[in-house]
Write a structure and sequence with these properties.
RNA Polymerase Alpha Subunit, Chain A, domain 2, 51% strand, 2 domains, six-stranded mixed β-sheet, 15 strands, alpha+beta
Length: 215
């Protein structure tokens, strides 16, 4: 009974004190919150099979964030990213509304706004084609020596590109191999140069052997 009387005494005063403390805490907390506006270039994933991203617009999205001022000052450039899934999209131009969930960020940050509210992405069909690899050789062997033959292994690579571009590809080149004044065979692992408008090449490297002998 004594405990009940102690708890009941000045009950409204105690409730008011607790409410005031909560209000003061929320006020202090709100004063430490601030906003940050960043421009992000979107990154895309989950591209539908058989399609590739041709273009998108706009190239940047403005993201308005809100969070603790002290923690905001500690952010690094890579802490906030805009990652967009293209799952389920069809060939052609697609309008994608932007969602807060696309903004990858530390948990203390809240997304207040995205501008614009959506982006246009254009997807095109892609094709694959085996193309021969030609070694790009520069220079000449030492006097009295000659190139007997040039071997490339593998001799073909798989090139992936938009279907309308594939017909324009006949072969691909390696990076340049300088054999100036060589007096013996040269073997090098060289990178395959990706043609303009090609999307991917597999494998990306080949072994080039330039067989050199005396005249």
């Amino acid at each position: 009974m004594a405990l009940r009387r102690l708890l009941g005494k000045n009950l409204w005063l105690k409730v008011a004190s607790v409410c005031l403390a909560v209000i003061l805490w929320m006020f202090v907390l709100s004063r430490t919150q601030t906003e940050l506006s960043v421009k992000l270039e979107p990154a895309f994933h989950d591209v539908p099979q058989g399609l590739a991203l041709l273009q998108y617009e706009p190239r940047e999205v403005s993201v308005l964030l809100r969070g603790n001022e002290r923690l905001l000052r500690q952010l690094s450039p890579g802490d906030i990213r805009l990652s967009i899934s293209l799952k389920g999209l069809k060939e052609g131009r697609n309008f994608m509304p932007l969602k807060d969930a696309y903004v990858q960020r530390p948990g203390f940050l809240r997304v207040e706004g995205l501008s614009p509210s959506g982006i246009w992405v254009e997807l095109r069909p892609v094709g694959r084609r085996l193309l021969p690899v030609r070694a790009d050789i520069r220079g000449s062997p030492q006097e009295g020596f000659m190139i007997e033959r040039i071997e490339v292994s593998p001799g073909e690579v798989m090139v992936e590109a938009f279907q309308e571009e594939l017909a324009g590809f006949n072969s691909v080149l390696t990076e340049t191999l300088d054999i100036s004044r060589a007096s013996q065979s040269v073997v090098e692992t060289l990178r395959v140069v990706k043609p303009p408008r090609a999307l991917r090449i597999q494998p990306q490297e080949v072994v080039v052997k330039v067989v050199i002998r005396k005249r």
